[in-house]
Each structure stands twice: as structure tokens, then as C-alpha cells.
Amino acid sequence: MNREVNPIVPPGPLQALGPRARIAALAEHGSITPLEAPGLSPHLARFGVTPHPDDGIVTARVEIAGLQLLLAAQDEGYLGGSVGERHGAALRTLFERAVDERPAGVVLLLASAGVRLHEANAAELAFAKALSALHAACAAGIPVVAICLNNVFGGASVLATATDRWAMLPGARVGLSGPKVIESVHGAWELDTSDPRDIDAVFGATARAQRLQGDFVLDDVDTLRAWILQVIRDVPSFEARVRAKHRLHASMLAGAEPRQRDRPALPCFDDANADASGMLWRTERAWLMRPFSREAVTAADMHAMDAALLRLLDDGALASRPLVVIEDSAGHAVSRGAEMSFVSAYFAQHAAVLALLRTKGVRTIGCLAGVGHSAAFFVNALQCSELCALATARVIAMEPASIARVTGVDAAPLIEDDPMLGQPIRHFARLDPAIRIINEASLREIGVA
Q1: Whether residues 297 and 396 fall in one domain
Q2: Using only C-alpha atoms, what is the Rg of the chain?
Q3: Do 196 and 254 share a domain, yes or no?
Q4: Helix pair angle (343-359, 120-139), 10° resolution
Q5: Other Cβ atoms within 10 Å of 43 Cβ, number
Q6: Alpha-carbon distance 66 to 229, whole Å?
Q7: Cα-based torsion angle of the residue sequence 345, 348, 354, 356 in order, rounded to the nearest 10 degrees
Q8: What is the pTM of this model?
Q9: pLDDT tens sequence for the chain (449 residues)
Q10: Quick check: 104 and 232 in contact, CB under 8 A?
Q11: Number of folded domains that form the chain
Q12: Which of 92, 249, 265, 445 suits 192 as a labelling partner, its CA being 20 to 30 A distant?
């Protein structure tokens, strides 16, 4: 595409600008080369939503201080900046382009409500593939950084914390479960959404930075340029970053323990023995990652699983046996405590550990044996290089009541037979021919010979 002469944007807050103006403000004058727009979403018309050619995200090749960078800017003015199928594909393409072109870095300007519930199945799959491509770019030595401009919730918060370094502007709020979700589950005594101070104490940029959960950067173009240039020059190797973050998370958990769970009654666990952590099980042919037994997944759960995986990697125990990731959970933990611990970062780290295993040549196979629920699914089994699922399995991007609240459509009658909102695995599998439907969760059916 041709380079365009971007308008000179006067210094000022990026938060007040649209996505194209944000890119123009950061880029050197005349250096923007727009990248192909994602195109119109085919899934929105039935909801009475007019699709946009950019699907809520703008991507471009730019220069800052003489360095070539790839930028993506989300548009929170369009469906809350939510990530639909085309939006997610644009992110994935950006990271894949980075591996091919080898820019000095990739910068994400994030403002998003997370996965677009109008396109639940397609959006979740696209999000998972974008996350995998992000980690592939990092593993290839391309620095990827993010700046959270306003609200960044749901899967978008996982994407932010999956980068090499990320920052928040004043007034930004970041988290996996939004304030209204927590209040609806636990009541105002847990989180009072009528009190902005209570919300900011959990999700706000200042509180997150004080808990060392991210950088705090002023909304000033020169300051933001300086932050970008500094961090992309100081990014460690992918493996070093994964291991350093694991140590940081260990110190931040302050002794929190994962919940103990019984051994699953699945054929693939026949004759399997637990490792010392109790998180992984070994057979003669494979290592098995125990599912979370339809319970909500906490930060401590994810950290314990990652500790077990990294220990196996260091011991060389994964060299001759594939890792089978058994998926079945109730999604992520929804509570004030979960957000204070910043469960998003632990989910992002788990996806990074699985990516590290792939870079080491470990064969990873996801097996959806029960329920694949929201972020707990797309950072886990959906990050494997192969995926199979029982014919009785289900995928839940979000509960029907939440979908109805966002889309204005009663989703309850649609969860069985709707291609986008339907929960039976047959709908999800139609979106990706690589997903295999199996009859039982045995090693033979899973594909471990």
C-alpha cells in the first residue's frame, strides 16, 4: 500500500482521539503506510448493527525516531472496541507480518471490552489465534508492547499482559471481569459500581501500577514515544521473559495455594500416575494436564500448573512424550480478590508457557473433554498445536444472560443450534476444520500412538 501523509496532530491526550488520529499522533509526519482493513463482519446485520470496514481496529506501518514499527489501534467507539472474527484476524495478521518483516517492534493501542459476544464462537477462536501469533512474534525476537488507553477488559486484558511490556494511561481500567459482572455475581458489598473510587481501587491504572502489575505512563505524545523506544530496546529473550514473569508471579501470590482436585474419571488417565505437584499425570505415552473439573480457575491454579510444566521442561521429561491438555472448567474466577491478584496476567502467562513448550519442540494436544469456557479455554487448550474434542463437549464464550445484556437478543433459545452463539462443539468445530471430534477421551482417540 502507498504511504500516506498523515496530518500533523497537535500534542494532546491520545485518549481523546480516534484510532487513526492516535496512530498519526505517535508516528513521524509522513511515515504512515496503512495496512489492509479487516473488512465487513458478516455476523452483525442480524443484530441491527452496521458493520464497519475496519471492524473496530486500524493497523499501519510507521516510523518513530527512525525506527520502523507496526501499530494497531482499537476503536472503543465501535462496539466497545470488541474483538470480532475480522478484528481478531487483523491482529493475527499483524503479528505474522512482524515475523516476516522484522520491524523494530509492534505497538498495540488497546481500548476494548474483550471478545465480541455477537460473534461468540468465531470471535473466541480468532482471539485465541491472535494470542498464539503474538507469542510466536515474541519468540521470534520481535518486541511487542501495549498501551491501555481507556477500558481494557475481558480477553483484551489478557492480550495486553501477554506482551513483553505494557502500560496504562491515567484513567484507564484493566481487568478480566468487568465491575458490573462482579457486582451482579456477589453484590455491591463485594464491588460497588456506583462508587468510582471502589472501581479504581481494583481496576484503575494507579492501583495496578502501585501493585506492580503494569507501567503507568502519562498521556503525552513525547512521553509515550520515549516509553515505546525505551522498552523495545530493553526486551529480554522470550524464554527469559517467561521465566522472569513466573518468578514475579510466585512472589506476588504470597503463598496462595491451588485447590486440590480429584483424578478425572477419563480413559486417558487409566494407569496414569500423578507427578509431585499433582497438577500433571504421566502415562507411558504422554503427560496429561489435569482439567479444572468445571470449577473456576484462579491465579494460583494457573501458576501451579505453569510451575509443574516448567519443571518438566527443565528435567527433560517432555522430550519424549507429548503434553495432552485436558480442558474442562467453569472459566476464570470472578471476584474482587481475583481481579486484585490480576488473574489476566496469570492467564496470559500460562499461554506464554505453552508457547515456550512449542518453541522447544514439545508436541501439545488440546482435548476438550467437557466445557471450554471463555478466557480459560482460549489461553489453555486453544493454545495447543492440535485440538480434539468429545462430541458432547461445549464451548461457552459467555453465559446467555450476558450475551443478551450486550447484544439485546435473547440468547437462551439460541445456545443449542445457532452457529455463532451455539454451545455444542459442532458449531465451534465448523469454524476450524483442524478440530477433530472424537468418541472418548482415550489416548488412542486423542491421537497419541
Answers
A1: yes
A2: 21
A3: no
A4: 60
A5: 21
A6: 10
A7: -80
A8: 0.96
A9: 455 544 444 445 899 999 999 999 999 999 999 999 999 999 999 999 999 999 999 999 999 999 999 999 999 999 999 999 999 999 999 999 999 999 999 999 999 999 999 999 999 999 999 999 999 999 999 999 999 999 999 999 999 999 999 999 999 999 999 999 999 999 999 999 999 999 999 999 999 999 999 999 999 999 999 999 999 999 999 999 999 999 999 999 977 888 777 778 899 999 999 998 889 999 999 999 999 877 899 999 999 999 999 999 999 999 989 999 999 999 999 999 999 999 999 999 999 999 999 999 999 999 999 999 999 999 999 999 999 999 999 999 998 988 998 899 999 999 999 999 999 999 999 999 999 999 999 999 999 97
A10: yes
A11: 2
A12: 249
What is the identity of the amino acid at 29?
A: H
Contact 442, 264 (CB under 8 A): no
Q: Which three cell numbers stand for residue 388?
A: 480434539
Task: Tell me if 434 is assigned to some domain.
Answer: yes
Question: What would the grid cell of residue 399 be?
Answer: 453465559
Domain range enclosing 266: 241-446
Q: Where are any strands of DSSP class E within 311-447?
A: 323-327, 364-368, 371-373, 386-390, 394-396, 436-438
Q: Are residues 155 and 282 in the same domain?
A: no
Q: Which residues contact 185 (CB under 8 A, 6 or more apart)?
A: 334, 335
All cell numbers assigned to 204: 484503575
Same domain, 55 and 109: yes
For residues 211 and 249, membership in a common domain is answered with: no
| Contact indicator for 121, 373 with CB cutoff of 8 Å | no
The answer to the question of residue 3 being in a domain is no
Residues 276 and 394 in one domain: yes
Rounded Cα gap, residues 279 and 277, in angstroms: 5
Residue 215, phi then psi, degrees to nearest 5: -85, 150
Helix (H) or strand (E) holding 309: helix 299-315
